[in-house]
Amino acid sequence: MLDSKVPAGPLAEKWSNHKFNLKLVNPANKRKFTIIVVGTGLAGASAAASLAELGYNVKTFCYQDSPRRAHSIAAQGGINAAKNYQNDGDSIFRLFYDTIKGGDYRAREANVYRLAENSVKIIDQCVAQGVPFAREYGGLLDNRSFGGAQVSRTFYARGQTGQQLLLGAYSALNRQIKKGKVKSYTRHEMLDLVVIDGHAKGIITRDLVTGKIEAHEGHAVLLCTGGYGNVFFLSTNAMGCNVTAAWRAHKRGAFFANPCYTQIHPTCIPVTGDHQSKLTLMSESLRNDGRVWVPKTKELAEKLRKGELGPNDIKEEDRDYFLERKYPSFGNLVPRDVASRNAKEVVDEGRGVGKTGFAVFLDFADAIKRMGEETVRAKYGNLFDMYQKITDENPYEVPMRIYPAVHYTMGGLWVDYNLMTTIPGLYCLGEANFSDHGANRLGASALMQGLSDGYFVIPYTVGDYLAGLGSFAPVDKNHPAFEETRKNDRR
Amino acid sequence: MSVGTYTFRYSTLHTQFIIDMSKHMNLTLKVWRQKNQNSEGKFVTIQANNIADDMSFLEMLDVVNEDLTRKGEDPIYFDHDCREGICGMCSLVINGRPHGPNERTTTCQLHMRSFHDGQTIVIEPWRAAAFPVLKDLAVDRSAFDRIQQAGGYINVNTGGVPDANAIPIPKRIADEAFESATCIGCGACVAACKNASAMLFVSAKVSQFALLPQGQTERYERAQAMVDQMDKEGFGNCTNTGACEAECPVGIKLTNIARLNREYFTAKIFRQEDVHA
Predict the structure, then answer these.
(1) Which residues of B touch A128 (CB under 8 A)?
(2) CB within 8 Å: A355 and B150
(3) Closest partner CB to B82 (pick from A73, A141, A459)
(4) What domains, with CATH codes, occur in chain A?
(5) What is the model's pLDDT at position B276?
(6) What is the predicted ipTM?
(7) How far apart are CA A238 and CA A167, in angstroms?
(8) Of A218, A377, A428, A454, which has the fewest beta carbons less than 10 angstroms from its beta carbon?
(9) CA-CA distances (angstroms) from residue A372 to A26, A363, A364, A365?
């Protein structure tokens, strides 16, 4: 039976009480333990840096040539925190409530409450590291609002919040590498997990430069390896995000939860042909002013696909603004999943546009008429430029083409309240685990979860496991399990 | 160029035909091939046929690699990951220019419509002593990591920090720090520079922290430590040609280098105690 280890007591006291009840490792003994961290995105880098600060020896592994390149870097929008700097009624409970509700009540409440509690500390931490968040003229931090919330609680660094937060965590990691507390292995891919007497005790890696297969031992293993979006033919994930680490852990006995909970983002740039390697996301803020439509008939759509007609040749009465028609009160701002599903539906009916037919229009003609091109440029200029760079079409003149794409996975390795998987000593943090977003993640919550897990959860919970091992002895490098696992990988 | 040719290809992973109406072109690639760090490299001519103009440059290389693989030859190795222009993993000197002919565009965001049918494209790795070639087009940029490790951070532990709004930072300063912080660490500045200088990269980080109040306490030690490491790695010095700024895919400005020089000289001329007084 699965035991989530969620502590008893009222929601708001669970984490405080739990922290007090967790076993501690004496500072002098921490240096006797080695922790392996796989993946150096927000979760991995923040965990590795924080654990090294506490005195543990840490080994980090990433397949890129530098820890700074992990795919957290591509997150655009922002990071939520219940700071209530805007005095608009936000609170830890409200962030908790919005996250639970947004996830269709399928997330683990205790984890989400802890996430909301930690959110405020994350912003403090990042500012202290020198992350240049957007500010107001008075010099205080600015917030924007995001889907699924009626308060303004999203902190951001223009459209590059993920990059700035990751570089913050990377700088903290660098500081520990310099101090010798973290050994960083780049261009290394995890191939398998080494399990000894039921406990995770190491990993097998491949050096991507030399091809050498190596074994690394540790007292605990943290998988911070992101989601499984790339199991789909195309997604917005980076090319190297191939879910090997989580899959191998699963093969070694770690349970996998909610794999069907995949988030499909409605505003991606459509596929152009079968040479396509990946998809590019555009911020869904575009739907604030763009109108989504396809032609009313298949015949017109066919002519558009063949290039016999241009989008501006389609008369107003021949256009189907399907989101406005079906959801008059929300219009084009329906939730992500609804927008995505409806776009697929009209494409399946044969009314898709663009050369491939896998697209719907996102039209700014009305917005340009209403606000003027300059205002539209000020609001969306960078997105329009990116679109033009990729498609060679000018969205100020012809409607954008968009299509839904896989971009985040809420499911992942099952973890308990301590973020431990069903294999003792194997932890899973960030997007790779399943616990905090239920069936649907709210915008600006992915960055929050990665950093909460890494900075403020794992430093407490991993100590409880290590203290319970009852021994400070190093892991036996010569244990036959290492050679056996390594041999299995040569098949 | 075969304008308007319809090519029908069956994609095994899609369930329907994709009608590809892109313009197509045939190209001659002169690609740097090098087995490993210790071997000699050379240019190899490879034909790239039927390339759609809406492919990205890296997708063009993917297609060429599929071809090479089918023929039993070694695919061309190149670094890439996010393919959204933000991770900084992709590189390539294309016809003599880092990240190719377009302004403020990484190689992954460069599309084949920027080239024409029959064109010869020369593809090289970043060239710098501090960036040794690992294989084909991939270089070892760990020198950049070591420079960051030397001082590219603020000494602060997790937890125990003041409230985020405790220190107001003027918007102008925060915005300027942000501009410097957008460096993606790709190394195009080094590849563009005739001295293979890493000054633009180093100055971006030094500037970010020199501008922000959080970075003040270690401001001058940081500049010294990072410059010392930069020299140790074998990067050249800056002679203000401005090639780095011109080729930087995210538009990091030359003024950062001016600020780095000021930080470094201040640190060298005055004793630390005087600087902080």
Answers:
(1) 154, 156, 161-162, 214
(2) no
(3) A73
(4) 12-261+410-488 (3.50.50.60), 265-407 (3.90.700.10)
(5) 56
(6) 0.94
(7) 17
(8) A377
(9) 64, 14, 10, 10
